[in-house]
Write a structure and sequence with these properties.
Length: 426
């Protein structure tokens, strides 16, 4: 595909507000001019890839090869001299937890329905030799705003294609802290588990991540206390690490607890496959209830579990993000001027665009603790050992991430900062 043809493709879309930001670029909402269809466009800055363009090409090929009602659908892709553009189905219903905290009722049945849909996705992917490697609530989206909306799994940026048997081992640290399976850390020499060492890992890492999601979805908090990978490995060396605290789990079925324990088996060789877990009693009973014409049995409303855990952590994250954003905004203006020669006409794609109504932002900062955020800020500031060019790129990336993320919390405040930035750049 020529860059000329790609520029013509770009003109087919009307780019709108920013939905998310990451290390390699942004995600923008857009409208297909001819049909009015709303889509999401992932814009990846090639200079951020440091020569690894094949990673994006691999993601595109992977998305083009799959089709499932619970996986975000690839619509189109194109590239320009400086950017890749991946056009996908737009999920308008919001992130999993951000939507749930606004609900008034959520039961074990509802939680099982979400896990069931995600299990079906993993069964589909794993049978095609695909390991997602980043299963987490931020990558689980509701397709629409309807109360009975299905969920879709998004972001295949770190996915890997292996053999269909599911026994091919891969290496490389990928995923989000708190959801990464222990054998993934072990494969990178962080620690040794059951003699696995650096032998690699299989698609069982996705089962672990989904087990963490299931625990968090029902209990409202993480099953782990560790703050570092090393502490995490120490914490989970025994299968007795999974604790179901009476206050939050007293009304939850033993089948649900058994499902979680089996998913979080420290030995990935014992961990059930997605196909096996689809035949777990917790899932089978759920499917039977779902297909039955009988009224569902009364279940405890556990929405307060989720709201309590999510809101407490979010309050702290808001305060920290605002401090970081203020510190970085000034650097953003300077660095954008200094690196101006690196941006072509596509640079507009990376300017912050706040939604006039609502912004659904998806990025990894939502899972960071206060210490992790401070550590990230500290590491961003120390660049003595790095080249001036690399240091500028890191500051620019962090500034964009924090600026976009804060839009979700205070659109009016961000708008004032954006206006100030625009005035200073003129």
């Amino acid at each position: 595909m020529s860059f000329l043809a790609s520029n013509s493709k770009k003109k087919l879309y009307e780019f709108q507000e920013t939905l998310g930001a990451g290390s390699f670029g942004t995600v923008r909402k857009a409208v297909v001019k001819e049909t009015g269809e709303e889509v999401a466009i992932k814009i990846i800055l090639k200079s951020r890839l440091k020569g690894h363009l094949e990673a994006v090409e691999r993601e595109i090929r992977l998305l083009a090869s799959i089709s499932h009602p619970n996986i975000v659908r690839l619509i189109d892709w194109f590239e320009t001299r400086h950017n890749f553009y991946i056009v996908t189905q737009l999920a308008t219903g919001g992130e999993l937890f951000e939507r749930l905290v606004k609900q008034t009722c959520f039961t074990e049945y509802d939680a099982c329905e979400i896990i069931y849909q995600l299990l079906c996705v993993l069964d589909y992917l794993h049978k095609r030799g695909i390991i997602h490697r980043d299963i987490k609530p931020e990558n689980v989206l509701y397709l629409t705003k309807a109360t009975d909306s299905p969920i879709v799994l998004a972001d295949f940026g770190v996915s890997k294609q292996t053999n269909a048997k599911g026994d091919q081992k891969i290496t490389g640290l990928a995923g989000s802290y708190g959801y990464i399976a222990p054998e993934v850390y072990a494969s990178e020499g962080v620690g040794d588990l059951y003699g696995l060492g650096k032998g690699g890992y299989t698609n069982a890492c996705d089962i672990w991540s989904l087990g963490v999601v299931a625990y968090t979805l029902i209990g409202g908090y993480s099953p782990f206390c560790a703050q570092t990978p090393e502490e995490f490995l120490d914490e989970v060396r025994s299968n007795n690490f999974v604790v179901f605290h009476q206050k939050y789990w007293k009304d939850i079925s033993e089948d649900a607890k058994d499902y979680i324990v089996k998913s979080l088996d420290i030995d990935n060789r014992r961990r059930p496959s997605a196909e096996q877990l689809l035949h777990h009693p917790w899932i089978l009973k759920h499917v039977a209830q779902k297909n039955s014409t009988k009224a569902l049995p009364q279940q405890r409303n556990i929405i307060t579990n989720i709201q309590g855990g999510f809101n407490a952590a979010e309050k702290l994250r808001k305060a920290v993000r605002f401090v970081i954003m203020k510190n970085k905004l000034a650097k953003l203006r300077v660095l954008r001027k200094q690196e101006g020669e690196e941006f072509d006409s596509d640079s507009e794609d990376f300017v912050f665009h706040a939604s006039p109504t609502k912004s659904n932002v998806v990025m990894d900062f939502s899972k960071l603790s206060l210490d992790e955020l401070r550590d990230k800020e500290h590491k961003a500031e120390e660049g003595a050992r790095k080249s001036r060019r690399q240091q500028k790129s890191e500051h620019l990336t962090l500034a964009f991430q924090n600026l976009v993320r804060l839009a979700q919390d205070s659109k009016e405040r961000i708008k004032r900062y954006q206006d100030e930035e625009d005035r200073n750049s003129n």
